[in-house]
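Appendix B. Chain record.
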Amino acid sequence: KRVTLVEQGERVGGKMNLVQQDGFTFDTGPSLVTMPFVLRDLFAVAGERMADHLTLEPVEPLTRYFFPDGVRFDASADLDRMTAAIGALNPADADRYRRFLDRAHGLYDRTADAFLLNPLSWRSLLRQNPLDLLRIDALPTVADRTARSFESPHLQQIFNRFATYNGSSPFLAPATLNVIAWVEYGLGGFYVRGGLYRIAAELAALAERTGVTIRLNAPVEEITVAAGRATGVRLTSGEVLSADAVVVNADVVDAHRRLLPGVAAKRRRKLERLEPSLSGVVLLLGLDGQTPGLAHHNIVFSDDYEREFAQLRAGIPADDPTIYVAVPSQTDPELAPPDCEGWFVLVNAPFTSDRFRWTDDATAAYRDLVLNKLSRFGFDVHSRIRTEQSWTPETLESRYGANRGAIYGLASNSRLTAFRRPGNRSPDVRGLYFASGSVHPGGGIPLVLLSGHHAATLLLADDPR
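Structure tokens predicted for this chain:
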């Protein structure tokens, strides 16, 4: 069978993209690779070795955390190093960390088959040990579990942060999401030499080597449907491409809203009632000079994490936000001009609504709020900015078709979140499949790749040709 990929942008990758400006190269999407075996397996399926195309390097420390009270903490995937750092912060929590990580590892073992590595279905659930499904820690929240696991409020805040990896609140999301701690600290976090956009570029090249035709700058106007079956796509140019099956990796809510007019209206209304994930404000900063004290990945925490998430859930930007600062040029100097560094700054923000409008003035004011907070932590870069861009939730919504600007698709702010995420096969249109961070199994590099695997598995099961 012939496969054609139509991409609305000038390059593949969606939110995994890049900006090249004034000698700086910025990754604009994911900044860390986890579960690298998923990427390695994808190359192997195509008969190639990932190592021949991508160089993955472990990041150490994984993240440097800064707290308002002056505490600084370096997190590591090295168990002994991490345990020693925790012991220096609060001796009683060193052994607690090992127990917490063992618990997270158990969550991974109990959820991987049914919720990650296979298409979500009653068949996959029935294959599970029923006791395992009862032991996925779905009743307490992430914050409940971390409060029981650690004495130190600093450690509680560090491990609460993992709920934000899929755009959720640790005070609402089920403790099942603590599995992310094992994925990062147990399996490790990696950087891709040359920047993470290399993943998208190399996968595109791999696809073309296997016979896929890639058409850029080819936005889709409509998924064509006849007699309840997907028959192809109509481009905005008016060109119609016929197909036996269609795989959509646009946001699933936006796809139903824009690309399936008059089709699956009941499904669209149901999807639109689900809570979108958090969005974000992004600053791309090209700076003169180097910044002492920063690691590759950095988190500057808010003083009141629970208040921060309450504001986000109320639909307004936090007035004391937690700030993520990635400085990949520390690891990969070629991403910035000599004696310069590029910052990717991300702040959680509410998805778009009538409760807040990102006007030019509001965006500029929030940019200043973020930079001023960094200054108070000792990182004043105002006079060093050579080039910059500011993105808001509305940028993400318009540029990538992200439903209400959501970065991670749908939020996980309920106990049944794993069962409510849309699947990879359309229940309404035959021959229509979905693969993205907005469908099963979720957002982030490995899970998005797995969603593609699941969509392909279902497509081939439905049509062995």
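Further analysis of this model is presented in Appendix C.
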